[in-house]
Each structure stands twice: as C-alpha cells, then as structure tokens.
Queue: 4 jobs
Job 1
Amino acid sequence: MGKKIGIDLGTTYSCVSCVDDNGVTRIIDPAEGGGYTTPSVVYFDPDSGEAVVGSAARQEGALHPECMVERVKNYMGDPNYILNVNGQDYSPAAISSLILKKLIGDAECWLGGEEIEGAIITCPAYFGDAAREATRIAGENVVMSNGQKLKVLQILDEPVAAALAYGDSRHEDMQKNVLVYDLGGGTFDVTVMKLNFVGDSRNMEVITTDGNHQLGGKDWDAALSDYVRNKFCELTGADADEMQSDPTQIQWFSENIEKTKIMLTKKESAILIPSFNGNKEKIEITREIFDTETESLLNQTIQLIDDMMDKKGLSVVNDIDEIILVGGSTRMPQVEKRLQLEYNKPITSYEPDKAVAMGAALVANGIKVDSSVSVSNVAEGEVPPPPTGGTIVIEGGAGVQTEIIVKCTKSYGLLAVSNGEDVIANIIMKDTEKPTLQMRRFGTAQANQSSINLRVFENNSLEENATVEESVELYENCIVELTPGLPANAPIEITFNLDASGILVITALDVTNNISKEVRPVRVGGDVNNIGMDAIIGTVLR
C-alpha cells in the first residue's frame, strides 16, 4: 500500500500534505525549495517545448509573458475558456493537470520512492458539477513516475478540509458553530459548520455554504495596480490605457504589486517606483490608502455572508461562536479588522496557506467509509442503489474518530412548466446531505415516443422551483432512449445521484417495463476538458 496525500489546488498557490508514519500531518515542500507552497503558474518554453511550473515559471515568464499561464482555477469547467500558448490550445483542466503533475512529482521526491496510492483534491465549496468534473479529470490525467495515472480518491470542499485541520489541532471538548471565511488568491468561500467534540468522538456537520469564484486576492492586486497606475499618470501625464497594455508594464506590475500588498500586512506603508516612457516616479502606498481602494471588495464578502445566513434564517451575531480565517488573503489586516467590527466574534487565523492541504491529507489518510455512489462504480445503464449516508468517517490516532457530514452546495433540477412559465424543478436541494439519490417520475408526452431530452440545471436556490435566469444548464443534450411502443403518459423515473465529490450521475427507469435506460449526457462544450490533455501528458517538466 502506498501513501495517500492531500492536495490544495489553489488559484494562485497550491500545497501538498500527507500524514507521516507517526501520525503527524506534514506539508510537502516543493523540490526546488523556497517555501511550502507552489505558485499555480505554468510557463511553456517556446524553444524546447518543455514546461516549468511554480516559482521558476514566474521568473522565466518575465521574458515571455505570452507563454505564461496562471489563475486557471477561476475557469475550471468553463467551456468558453480555452488558452492558446505557442500555437497549442489548452483547457483549464489540462493546465491544472500539469500543475498537479509538478505537485505529485514533489511528493514522490519527498516520500523517497514510496508510491502514491491516491489523492484527495480540494475545490471551493460552491464549485458546481462542471468545475468538479474538470478537477477530477485534471487529477486522473496525471501520470506518476511508476507509469500509472493518479487515483483521485475524492474531490473535497476546501472549507471542510480547513475546518478539519483546525479541529485536529484542538484537543479539548467543544460544541460550537463556526464560520469558515476562506479568501484565497482568486476565490472566496464561506461555510457554516457545527463542531461537536466530546472525548474521542468528533462530529463535524456542514450547515450551509456559498462563495464567489471570481473574487479573491487578485482583485485586491488589481485595485492597487489601478491606483498606482492612475497616480503615476496623474504625475507624469502618461496615458493609462497605453501603460496598462504595455507588456513590460504588465510584467512589472505582476512582480511588484503582490509584493507590496504582502508588505502592507506588516508595515504601515510601502514605496513603489514605476517607470514608463522615460518617466519615473516615487509613489507611497499607505495601508489606509490600500484599505480605502479595496473597501468595496471587502464589502462584497460581508454582503455574501449576510445573504447566505439570511437565506438559512440565521445570523452571524446570534448563531456563530467563532470565525476561522483561511486562505492567504486573510492575512490582510483589513479582513480581521472588518469582521471584528461587523460581528464582534472571536476570530482565529489557522494556518491560512496550509490548512486546506492538511485537512485533505487527514481525510486521505484516515478515511474509513466513503458511501458515495460515483461515476466509476455505476455500470452503464444501471440504476445505482440508494446511498447509505454522506458521513465521512476518519480514524485518527489514539482511538480518536471524526465524522464529517457534508452537504450539497448546489440544487439540481429539470426544466419544467409551472403556471405557464418555464421553471427549474429542483430534484436535489442545496444543503441536502451528500451523497444523495433523489427520484422524480415524469410521463411521456405522446405515444410511441422514441426518446426524451432532459434539460438539467444547477442553481443556488433553496426553493423547490428556481428561475431559468438564476440557473446554469449542465448539458447540451441529455438523451434517454425509450422502449418502443410506450403509450402516452408512460411513467419514466429520473434519478439524480450526487456523489461525495459533488459530481452528478443521471439514470432513468422505464416503469412500465421495469427496464433501466441509458442516459447519454453531452456536457455544454462537449469534451472541452480534454483539449490539450494529450499534449500535457507528453510535456516534459524541467
């Protein structure tokens, strides 16, 4: 048996962890050194065709920024986002697979030859079916040093992993509701969890979650960039649009703005000296200026928290005992300051860059029961058996057992007509314990109907019916071939099965003949996740 590892596949930085033979959760450092995280950046050498991932990719990308790719996590599962580098098209899943290949290589090096049995890969809690499927595909296309492809044990929600790592660090009994505030480089997650720790028995339950996959530290960087650029143009008369589109300036801002933001977490001011078209200016950035320029971004996180809580009939003030900060961007002093002012609750910053990977490693190492019914273990045309429950049971050291109850982060339904209007009739409801299997019976529209094309959507609604406008269609076609000779209104049972990774499986049953029918879904964008995957598998990392 090999080692199971946990991977935090981040927007701007990624991290790998495992539990060693002594039961200690360890962060696996990048092989090249330089810290415990790897920048989620890929550089494709235009001459050799080789690829570089991590810190070196940023350095080499300074010469050829058009050959550097970063922040693809924001577009996982998006069929309309395809990158072209050196004449080769890549999907976000293909780029992510290359990042994962680097992380797996580092883990193999760190483990000293011990094989990797499988990995838990994390994703934002609000990721839908398409983004989770893209993440799974990215992982399963990583070829390890033994020639085998990586086994993806599960796609795990980041806040759940972070809360588990936090809980594992605490050795006292507790009964509390916590709000996990996860602000990373490119994504924002917020999750409410109930922690019930009594002796050697630990129970963790997700209550609700929400997020914004386009909000993260990169937006604070962009706001600071705008301020510096506009200030420079005000002082020199330079053209802001020309400066913003200049490749040299793009690289200069990429290298210096994030460093300045980090500096402002420890100091009250920082100095930047941009130069353009023969002009050079010294610009001072105070923490007050930075906070003012980014206040609207922080407001978005507060509004999202309040809206999420209100939908569940909860409030932070009345129903939350502690706020846990996760994600590198929570190091900005403005975050804790604003949360304290807004809610006046105890705030704990627990390993912002490491907690997610550590929690994933704990699940990978100690998972005892995974009752999911996943794509990989359902035969074609077979209706899966009902799940026995969504609890993940983890066996720790000294007899400590942790149970984690996870919930669906989206609702899933079919297009239907209600009172003459198109609605999405939700079959699986958000915040239902997962994995889950839900059925709904429909009737054929006419006699001798040959097939049904299901219109499948996901949304954030907590209601049985959602509007089409607030929902996302998952498939271009989702065809059910019917048994010949069925009368009109013949009952067809449609089953939605959401596995523990949050990936949807659809099956159908011809009730009249008691025959399971194959469902052939074609995702929006088709096989877009595999664009460039063959090139990635053959790409040499150096």
Note: The longest strand covers residues 201-212.
Job 2
Amino acid sequence: MDQPYVERRLAAILAADMVGYSRMMEADESGTLARLKTCRQDIVDPALVRNRGRIIKTTGDGLLVEFHSVVDAVKCAVEIQRAIFALDNGVPPEQQVRFRIGINLGDVIVEDGDIFGDGVNIAARLQELSEPGGVCVSRAVRDQIGDRLDIGFVDLGERSVKNLVRPIRVFQIALRTQDGELVPTAARLDSSAVKPSIVVLPFVNMSGDAEQEFFADGLTEDIITELSRFRDLFVISRNSSFVYKGKRVNVQEVAKAFGVQYAVEGSVRKAGNRVRVTVQLIDAETDRHLWAERFDRDLADIFAIQDEITASIVATLPGRIEAAAHERVKRRPTGNMAAYEYVLAGKVLHHRSTRADNAEALALLDRAIALDPGYAHAHAWKACTLGQTWIHGWCEDPAATQRQIAEELDRALALDDNDSDVHRILAAVNLVRRDYDKVVYHQERALSLNPNNDLIVVQQGEVLTWLGQAEEGIEWIKRAMRLNPYHPERFWGHLGRAFYVSRRYAEAVDAFKRIVRPDPGQLAFFAASYAQAGDLAAARSLADEVVRREPEFSVERYLATLHYKQDVDRAHHREGLLKAGLPG
C-alpha cells in the first residue's frame, strides 16, 4: 500500500522568544504589551520583510520564522538584536525588551502552512541556549555562512538538549567592532542595571608551561560558574568572555563592549614546585581597583589548589561588589535608584540593627517591591527586616508582624525557588519558630544552591550548633571565616557560642574577645564562658555590665529567646549564666 505523500524541504528556521515576559507582564501588563507591540511593528516585522522571512506561528512572547536563505535568516537576526539594543538605550532595565534567537538549517515537513520536524526542534533548542540579546546557530548554519557576512562565531561546543537523542554543536554569533575585535551579541547592561554586572576575563598563564594553561582556564571557568550561583550578580558567560583569551585588552573597553560595571582579571605563574595566582576586581566605570589578592601555594595537588582559590575568590567578590555598589548608591539621588539599589541600601540599614535604620530599610524595600513586584530577593529581605522588628520588639502588633513575615516569605518562595537567600532567610525564620525540620530543609537547599556564600555557610554552623552538633558547627563557621576574610564580627559570636556548647570554654572566651562592641546577649554568653572556664571575677564583671545595660535581664527570659533543640544544651547554658552571677 502506498504511503501518503509528505512534503519536505530544506529551510532556515529562526526561533525567537522574549526574555522575562511573564515577570514583566505581572509587573506592568499594559506597558509590557505596548513595548512588545512597538518592538514588533518598528523592528521585528520590518526586518522580516526586508530579509524575506515568513512567520509560521507566534505566541504571546515568541515567534517561529522560515527563510529560504540561511544568509537572510542570520542577517535578519543580527539586525533585530542591534536595533532592539539601540531602542532600549536609556530605558530602565526592568522595562527593556530582550530576545533570545536560535537559527537552524535543516529538513522540515510542510503541512497546512505549518512546518515540523527535527529542523524546527533544533532551532527551538538553540533559542533556549542563547543569552538575552544573543543569537545561537547550529553547525550547518555556521558552515553555510562561512565568510559571507562580517560576523564571527564563538564555538560553544556540543550540547545535549531535551527531546533530541544526539547532542548538537552550538555557535554564538559575534559582531566585529571598528577595531576588528569580535564581540558576542549577548545582551549588555548599562550602569543603571538592576543587578551588578561582571565579566571574568581569562586568567593569563605567565609561566610558559602548557600545564598551567589548563589550570588558568579551569580557574577562570570555575570562578564564572560559582559567581553565577549568586542571583544578585549578572555574570557574562564563559563563552563570551573567552573571546578575549590570549589578547591584550583594555579593561574599560571590554567592560563597555559587554555593558558591565565590574571586571575580574588575574594571572597564574609557576615557579619550581610553587604556583602563584593573582586576582583583582576593577570598577570599569572609574578604572579603579577595588580589591586585589595573591595566592601562593605548593603545587602538590593542583586541582585542590584550584578549588581552594576559586572558593576564596568567589566568597570575597560579592561582598566587595556590594560595598562598591553601595558607594554608587550614595553618589546618586534616591529617586533615581533602581530596584536592586533600594534592596542594597535596605540591607546595609538592616545590618546596623537600630530602630530608625530598620524603619528606613523597610521603606526602601517597599520601594523596590513597588518598582518590581516580582523581585523575590526584595520580598525575602523585607521578611528578614520585619523579623528584626519582631525580635527587638519594634512593632506595635507582634502577631500581625509574624503574619506579614510569613506572607513575604511565601511570596518570595513562589517567585523564585532557586534564590539561595530566600531559603537562607526561611531557615532562619523557622529556627525562631523552632520548626527544625523546615530549618534543615531550607538550610540544605540554600547550601546546595550557593555553597560559597559565607552567610549561608556560617548559618550552617549556627544551625548545627542549635541542633546539638556544635563540633561540626565549629568547622562550618571556620570555613565561612576562611571564605570571607572580611567577615562581620558577629561571626566571632557564632564561633564563641559553638565553642561553649562544645565545652571548649577557653576557645569560646578567645572568640568573644574578638567582638569590639558586644550586645547584651553576647556579653551574657561571654560571662558564661568565663564562668565555666573558672575565671569567676571576669565572669562577674561581664554579668554586671549585662545588668547595667538591661536592668530587667533574667536568665530564663534570655534562654527563652534562644533556639536550642536539645534540653541538655539549654541546661548547660543556664548553668554557666547562673554561675556567672546573672539573675535567674
């Protein structure tokens, strides 16, 4: 029996999709539709007509287009991305329209004006692999284009994608600048970006040793990968930054090409059985060095060294970037700050732990949420700041504040289940509620999402201490201190508490001594440590200071604010406080 005729043809297929469409619609439905309509009418549709593209189908935020010529398809994609970037110049980042585009050349099945088959599926997968503002193409497209257009290609290697058994070779289109350099078409952000943006340039091998070339490249890739875990950083991909490998670069020009605020550069040098890595963080806007570090290590286990250095750099950089971004905030009028900057300023005020700063932090976080209701991080930090008002008694209705905290956290989690800070704060809030199962779940989730965030790592040590596993907690807290040499002094309080619970009283005393301005709770712990160590005079002196600052202090009220799971740990703490002479 004859098989029904199936019409097939070779076609260039372009798949495009708007980035962040759902989030933007939720924040501003009418504005988003208006911007998308303008983009279609003024840029996309005219480009399709000029390059003889036929729209096969559209969705609310995307489209599938067929071209008879692969050259026309690529020309059209480049025209669209260039024109959209020019259109968005000066537009607030949260309102910018960005497309991901994928192009494939392959065999398609034609039926009732629609097209089907692997050729279409591969174009859709390439679109998903593209960066915002970028264009990814298959090997067939790269081979057909050759040198017909004044563009280049960055080889992203073979990628396994869903619904396809075989991997596909992916290339990213790069445009040639006036100086002849190739710059990927990926989206660029200006200095008003919602997130701080950073490019990690390939580390330079200064040794002349080929083995160190692999080490330098691996170190660069690991730093990019780990920085990408921080949801509040926009990190240029490895495939884009490695365009500059082996070239002499001007950091400001590279940062301008990518539209980023910060750049990381470094070098690797081998000398005998030692390896030296230098790294520096640069503010591209001012060409000012914000941070620099040098690592000297034995070459016994080069991969362990790579892991150690990566962890140290990645733990330090976000804090240095946040501090630098805060300086930017202070230099700008408040009315011009983007949502991220409101959150940043709110965090800084929260950390000061005063009633007035807390109120101002809440006001800034509310502004951030008004600018971007879908900003999970803002909701999470509002919950954290409300938690501070509840803990210190700065709220008129504690029960209402607790409900508001729960609502903000539920909102944050619904918006972004992959934000490590959302889970970190949820773990902390559930610790106050003494819901230990939820504490463990959210803490482990936060740690899996970002194992190099010092705040998450130190909280792991805190959680273990409260659960009765203080010895293990000590190691996590020490790790957080190694990760971030600039850690806040409260880390010493966490370490002192863990040492006390572990009955290592002399070490607890040494840790509490490092706190320059201890609060009454830390002083009480300090007094208990001295008492258990046998220095009752020092313990009594600290106990007197606690009562002087808080005349209504009592051991039982104080213990009720702590989060011990094990009764034996609470009893042990009570013993030390009473031995120090604090009123029961």
Note: The two ends are 95 Å apart (CA to CA).
Job 3
Amino acid sequence: MKKYSHSHATKFIVFIIMIAFYTGTVTSFVNVLTVPFDSVLQKSYFESGEYLEESDRLLSNLTQIMTIYKNEEHVLNGGTIREDEWRHIEEALFFDFQDHSTTYNPNLSQVENYERFKQEYADELSREREKIINRERREYHRLLQSLEDTEAPLFYASDGTNVYTNTTENEKQQFETYPAYLLFENYDQKLYPEETRNSEHLHWIMEDIESLNPENTVVYLAFTVEFLQPKLAEWERNSEFAVQNLLKLTIFVPGFIYSFIYLAFVTGRRSFKDPKVHFNAVDHLYNDINIGLCILLSSLIIVLLDLFIEVNKNIILLATVPIAILVFVLILSQVKHIKHKTFFKHSLIYRLIAQFANFIGDVYKNGNLAVKTILIVMGYPLFVALTFFMFPITIGIAAWFALKKIKSFKAIQVGVEEIKAGNLHYRIDVQGNGEFAELAENINSITDGLENAVENELKSERLTTELITNVSHDIRTPLTSIITYVDLLKNEKDPAKVESYIEVLDQKTKRLKNLTDNLFEAAKASSGDIPVHLEKIDIVSLVNQGLGEVDDKITEKNLEFKLKSSTPKVCVMADGRLLWRSIENVLSNILKYALEGSRVYIDIAETGSAVRLTFKNISANELNISADELMERFKRGDESRSSEGSGLGLSIAKSLIEIQQGKLTIQIDGDLFKTIIDLPNYIE
C-alpha cells in the first residue's frame, strides 16, 4: 500500500466509527432532553425553578386575596370594584341618558344633569354594580378554594385582620423547624436554605411579596421532609444523568465531525494526489432522488425518536443505526458529485429539463408552424413514454404548479369580493414573486390606502366632535356664570354685593376672552397662516429669559428649576417670537400642573443637525391619559377640568414649533411628564 493511500478497509473502519459517534450523539442528546434543564445549570434543587414554582403559585393567589379581595364583606361592599371600570360604566349610561331621557336638559349645568341621571338610572347603576360584585365574589371563592386545596407548601399568611393558612401552626419559630422555608414578616425576609437566594427565578416570588404592605403583613411558607425527599432524590438523579450525557456529547460530537470530514475528503479518491473521482453503483442514483431519500429517512429517524423516547431508549439504537448507515452512504455519494462538479447535472430534473429544452430548440429551429405543431403533438406522448418511470412525479409537479396558480387566482377572486363587500381589513395572501403575487400586493396596497383614509376620516370626525363638545363646555361655564350674575345685578340693591358681582363678572369675561383668543390662536397656528422669520436664536439665553419672567409664579408654586446645557450657548434656526410663545406655553403648562414643591429639569443638547430641548416635571394629578390624547385640543391631565387652563397650550405650541420646521412631542412615564422640542441646529 502506498503512503497516504486510502484503502477500502480504512474507509470502512472510519465509517463504522462515524456511525458509532453519530449514534452516541443522538442517544446522549435524547437523554439530556428527557431531564429538566435546570438539573444541569443549577447547583442544587433549591436554586431550580421547579422548587420556587411551588411557592409562586401559592403566593400569587395569596397576594390577590390580601391586596384586592381581603374578605367577603369587602367584596360585597364593592371594595374590589376598580374606579376606571366603574367610571366607564357610568359614562356609557350617562351618554344613554343624554340621548334617550326626557329629563335631560342641555340648558342645565353638567352637575345638575348628572344628579338627574343618578336618580333616573339608579336601578341600572345598581344592577351593574351587582354584576361586578358577583363576578368578584366568584373569583374570591375560587382563590379561597385553591388555597384550601394546597397541600404543599404549608403556609400561614395574615394582613393584620384576615388570616389564611392550611396548618395549625402560626408561629415563626414553628416554621423554622422545617428543612426549607420562606419567611416574610414586616420588612424582614428569611430564606432557608441560603442557596435559594442564588436562584435566577427568585424574582417570581419577590414580585408577589413586594406588592404586599410590609407594615402589617406576615407570610410564612415551609416544605416538609416528606415533600422534599423525593424531589431532592429525583433532582440529584436528573443532575447526575444530565452531566454524564453532556460529557459524552463533548466526545461524541467532535468524533463524529472529524470522522465525517475525513470521509468527505477521501471518498471517491484512492490517494491524496489522485485527482480523479471514482464512482460506484450507488453514485448512479440521481442526486435529487438521493436528496429526497435523505430527507425521507431523516424524517423517519425523527419520528422514531419521538415514538420511542418515552418507551425504551435502547430501541433508538436499533431503529436509527441501519437508517443512519443508509443516509450517510447517500450523503457521501452527493459529496462525490460535488467534487466532480456534477451535483446539478446528475439530477433527474436537470436531465428532463435539458432534454425538453433541446426538443423545443430543435422544433423552433427547423420547419414551419405546421411541422412544429406536428412535432409537439408527436413528441409529447413520446416524452411521456420515455419517462414513464417518473411519470407520477412529473405529473405531480405539473398538477402542483397548476393547483398553486389556481389557488392564487381563487384567493384574489375571494379577496376582491370581500373588499367589494366593504371588508377593508381583508388581506389577500399570495406567496411568491409572480404576476398573481404582484396583483395581490397591489390590491392590498389599495385597501391599505382606503383603510387609512377611512381611519383618518373617523379620527377627524371624532376630533371635531370632541372639539365642539369641549369648546361648548369651556365657553358655557364662564358664560353661564355671566348670565347668572347679570340676573343677580338686576335685582341687587346692596352696593357691596353689586361690587362683588361686578368683580366676578370681570373675571369671567376675561376668562371667556382668554378662551376665545386661545381658540383663535390655535386655529391660526394649525392652519400655518402665520408669518415665519427664521433667524439665529440662542435658545439657552431665551429659556433663561423666560424663567426670569415667570420667576414670581415659580416662587408661588415653590418649584425648583434645573437648567442644564451641553454648552453655554446653543443656537437654533427659529422665529424668536414664535419660539418664545411656544416655550411660554410649555412653562405655563408646567406651572399649572406640576407638583408643588418639586423640581423641574430643563435639558438642552445638540443631537447632530438638531437641538433638543427637554422639559421634565412631576405632575400634581395622576396622569391616566395617553400622550396622544393630551396633544389634542382642549384635553387636560386634570380630567375634572377644575383648573383655569383651556387645554390649548400644548396644541398651540406644537403647531408653532412645526411651522418652524421643528417637532414637539410629549412622553408620560408614571407621573413624570416630558415635553420634547426638536429644532434645526444653526450651522455657520
């Protein structure tokens, strides 16, 4: 034997070794999959998610009962009714009252109409309240039943008034006698064993505990020896089993890879220097059929693994070894054709296409139309006869292609009917890149445009309705007061009262004038009908000047402003008058709604071609409204509308910034309110 030669015996031995490594890899991998992965990653059972999951389910139920439901009396008294849910129900019924009740009087105030509503709809409100209470009561009893059915862990929980437990023990020292426990009392936490604190799943239970009031809450959990012993034993077995198989994989996987690479390199060649690829009987099988068989056999291995993984792992060896041998023989045959550069040419589809193409070429190169027709008519049955052994496959491919096109056409037809019927949300799903797919995409684009137009129209109508409603409300309030006090003046003789009434009238008329001025300014700003003179503006100086002008109001609200700028001087391209009006509106909004005694942060930073001005303050009222809604006209964070604001300030500021080629956005994070203004940077 020459040096570096590859005898059949060597290749056979390496092939057997590769199959052995492959079988070992599959078996070890299956073994690892049959045990919980925590058994490999964690050092002990008490660090695993399986251990903490037992406590998490219980704590989740306890948390709901102690924080939401408390006791049955609390539920029956409506203590679990959410304020936002009840407000939504009242609003829906109040709209029904406005539309259908004969007692609704648009000339009366909102408060007076609301009192009439509560009297007339008392029964409906009572029924809705009873529905919610019954629903919450069922959920409360479901949670109680779940606690009663809990056998492990043992628990004792108290919120200072109510007690929930599945054991007669109620002392902390009693729970500490168990081999594993979780104790939470006031602000103290005691977890045993200590390795429980190392668990990456500890946050599961800590999130539940943190939602409880630590001042008067006590929660004790403990696991008995009888519960833990089988769990610990099973975890130890799984851990040892998983580690052993992972170690095997570190040997089997590299061994399989190296042996396969060696075989792929030497297959078809008799030595390293032999440039010729030698084929055998298996290599005459067409590559596309070869690939199909590989896929079929690999799928069969997966199916067998799925069938036997829970029955008997030893059967895996008997089932996969012969199939694996056949698969790798076929794969190495394809490797030979890759080396010989005949991978695509040695395929049945390629041969058929080549023959058909040659036939078509010959037909079009020779003879007239009549000859071409005769040749096609005669050639087709001949072609079928020559490929009779593949006839089901060729017919199947042709039928599949035709069916696919028919389905695409049918999908487009159905889609057009749906869209014609008014279903603008319907999407025509046609896969591929052909004409049908392009047509479907064009139709979908048309429906997208129609849907956007409809949505914009509905949004415009909604905004118009809300604007009219809010304008009517805000203007009617001072106007009603003016009418009332004018009537009082007509009959009042006391000069002191007359003077007081006139002062109120003066305030209300100024308020009415301010509202109409703001409304006019908002309309003008949104239309863009304002002259703009862009120039270089030092925004740091402008903000400092603005803070100086409202210093008395800042002092009155006990606010502390913190201005931070990336450089002492930051210039933007803007209209000084319009920019100041925008900043003034933002500052006015902060002074009206910021929490008294809090800090307000103003940051100025350059971000490439733009300058970002950010105002951050804490809201005095709960912000249970979205940022998009706040940007709408006449929308306020103060939903009671008790403040003197018009709700137009931010809308005006946004319009003024936009006509200066800038952008104004707001963000809400809890009670943190952010106003962000982006303006073009001034470039020398």
Note: The longest strand covers residues 599-607.
Job 4
Amino acid sequence: MSETTNGELLTSSTTVSTTTVKGNVPGPAVSSRLPPTIAAVSKQVAHGTIWTVCGRTAALLASFFSTPFLTRLLGSEQYGIWALANTLNTYLSFTTMGMGTASTRFAAKPYTHSDEAGEAAVVWTSLLITIVPATVVMLIVILAARLLVSNLFSVPQYLQPEAAIVLQLTAIGFVARIFAEIFNTPQLVRLRLDLFTYVSMGTLIVQHGCVVIVLVKGGGLLGATGVVTSCSLILALMHVWVSRTLLPSLFRPRIDVKLIKPLLRFGSGVVLSTLLGILVLANIERVFLAYFSSVRELAYYSIAASLASLVSFIPSSMNQSLMPAMSTLHAAKDKIRLEALYVQALRAVLFCVLPMALMVCVAGEPFLRLWAGPEYAANSTYLLYILMVGVIFNIAAAPPYILLTAAGRTGTIAKCHLAETIPHLIYTSLLIFVFGAVGAALAWSLRTLVDAILLLAAARQEVSLSWQVLSGGWRAYGIALLMLVGTALVSFYFGGNLFVRLAIATIGCAGYCGVIWKKILNTAEQMFLLRLLRLRSANC
C-alpha cells in the first residue's frame, strides 16, 4: 500500500505464539502460523487495523497542519502543480508490474511453510521484475519533463521551469517507493502492521513537518518537493532494515526463475487493472482538468477530494490488514473462513462509512474556510458533496477487490475495468469540457458506482460467495438510512450555526449505528468491532 503525501488526505481461543528472531523483533512461531479459526484471523486483522488507524491518524493530523501552509504559501497555481506531481506519482505506478501486491500474495505460501529462503526469493524476484521498467520510465520522465509541462498541461509559462524540476524529483522519489513496497513484504505477510505503521507513517509525519519548515524558510515548491523525494529514499531504507530483522535470509539475494512466470501472470492482471482502474478510471479527470481547464481548477478539485477521502480513513486502514490475511487463508485453501472474513469486512464498512460521510459534509464548508482559506471554501464545497457519493461506492468496492486479488483473480478485475474504460473516457471528457471541476466530480462518482457493482458481482461469481451481507433485511436498512437522510436535511436547514448542525448530525449517526448494531450485525461482527475499540483504547 502506498502512503498519502502532503495535501492528499486522503480504507476463537486459539493463540498465535511468538518467538524472538534477530533484532529482538517478535515474530509468529512456526508451529502456529495459520490461525485455525476465523476469530483468530479477525483478531489479527483488528489488531492490524487499529495500528494502521493510529498511524494514519497521526499522519492525518500532520497533514492538517501542513496543508494550510501549502495552500497559502504556494498559492493556487503552484499548489495545482503540487497536485499534478501527486497525480504523476499515481500514474507511474503501472511500472511496478504489480509486484508490490504480488510479492505479498506469493510470499504468504512460503511463510506458512516456514520457508525463509523461498520467501526471500519472492522478494528479490519481484524486485528484479519491476526495477528495469521503473528505471526506464523514471529516465523518460526526467528527460521529457519540460516537454510535458509546456505542451500537455496548462501550466503558466513563468512556472514551467519549476514545474519540470518538480516532475523530475517526483519520478526519482517514485522509484524509491517501489523498493519500499516490495521490501515491506515480510512485515505484511506476518501481519506486523505495528512495524509497518511505525516506518511508513513515521516517515510521512516527518515529511509533513519538514515540508512546513522548508516553506516557512522560503524553500518554495522546489524545496517542498525535495523533502518528499528525500523522505521516499529514507522510507525505502527503513523498510529494508526492519524486514531484515523479521527475515534474516533477506540479505542473501536469490532469484527463483520458476517464480517469474506466475509472478508476471499475476502481475499482468494487476498492471492492467492498475492502468485502467487507477490511472485511467480513478485519476483521468485530474489530467483532463489540467488540460481542458487550468491547474487552478485542479487545485480546487484536489482539496475537495482530500477532504472527501477522510471517510475512507478507517476502511482503508482495515484493507491494509485484509490483503495479507486473505492471501494467507487462500494459500491454506480455507474457503469457509475466507468467505467469513470477507463478509465481516463488508458489513464493518457498512457500519462506519455513511455516518462519517454525513459528518464530513456537514462540517465541510466551515472547515474548508478555516483550513484551506476562503477561496477554496467557495469553490470546493459543492465538489466535496458530489465526490462524497463516489467515495462511499469506492469504499464498498474495496473488499471484493482485495478478495479477488488474494484469490489470484486479477484478470477478472482487469476485465471489469476494461468494460468501464471507454464509456468513462467519453462522459468524463464531455462533463469536464462543459462543467469544469463539477463535471470531473460527477464523472468520478458515476465511475465508482459502476465499479462497485461490477466488482461485487465478480466476487460473488468467481469465488461463489453469497449475498448474505444483506441478511439483516431491507426494512432495517431503510430505517437506518431514513434516519441519516432526515437528520442530514435538518442539519443543512440550520446552516447558520455549525455546532447545531453537528449536534443534529450526531443524533442521526447515533440512531443509524444503533439500528445497524441491533438489527443487522451478528454477534461475531459486533465482537469484531468491540475488539477494534478495545485495541484502540489499549494502544492509545
């Protein structure tokens, strides 16, 4: 998983014993690496989720602190270039050949069989597959940066030299993050989200703080970008060192030729789904905005998207644990527990997403005014409301996406994204050409709705899962949603007082959660959520 950068806010009685390995880092013992019950797996996922939540909360607070400095000290045009660099970082992700995900999935099997040499071979073979294309693309971006900013994007002429250097530094930092995504594999397959969080979120928090210092000292856009690139290099080195303590044989490089073909087969589906899903479907509206409109409009859109992404905070934290957990269960051919974990994930998402979406929308306009400034509050608030609908559907699509990936069905994901691509390109370009940033938000939200429907259907068909996630009954869902919608309308009617709006919205959220808890969630799912709360209390 990748971490957010500045300005992108970013979803049983069995006991697993531990032993001490080199570096005094506790790791799972050989004798009990596969928890035999879903409760044990859920506990590990819950523990990993809370570590991720705590880490991302700290990083989020740091981002809240740094973003006002970015928007005010850079100005809307330079901040638009900053957002453009973040978009480029996403677009370069296809050069990983899907090896960040593939290394985690394929390393799960040798780990469960106590095969350290095999696990290290997965890491080094994955790195070999991705390093050549990543380096080539990095060099292309470095050499063609001036051409890109002068001909492809609507960057003011006086900012083009600076924008070109920003893109070059971004490309260098991206290659460093490729190393980090592959070398963090030993942490993920062991579900050591505590170590992963310390390294990833710790580096990100330092990055936010250093960016603020550089901006205040007059370093400007180039200085801030240099900080991000430097932190990417440090992140890679830290992940290598921590993973070495968990997997002592990691520093004995070994390439397994027999792994190349299955890794590429798996990775090709990831690459295609990444190209279509992340690069074309999820972010093309930002490129079209920069081309058809301006980097200023892109800045407004990016701030709204950053605030809307707050809703995916807890669900995306759970997804960080779900991928290795589902990969391990699939490697053990434990379909029953895999299905149970999937259903728990979907219903946990149902429990927390809609109330969070309501609270963010209610507080959106005054928060934007305080956080980013009056200019962004005036131009980003309605974008936030539109994007929030898409964020909800995007969160719902994450568990089936992870399940299909863990099951090796990356080709199915690619087919779903392929079916969406041409229609999305057509209506996105038209909507942006006519409505600008509002059209971009509409196009993105429509795409996430279609994507969620296709992935949920594919998960059911490919892995033979039932629709038991809706077993609570439509009547209970209707009552819960009516509470949310009703209180949302009332809270917006009292638009003059933020505290009154938040109080009304809180009442609606409490009623919604009460109905979901009593009428829809079963005992196991209630215990899963209570475990999250207990772990959060213990870690705090």
Note: The chain has one domain: 18-472+520-539.
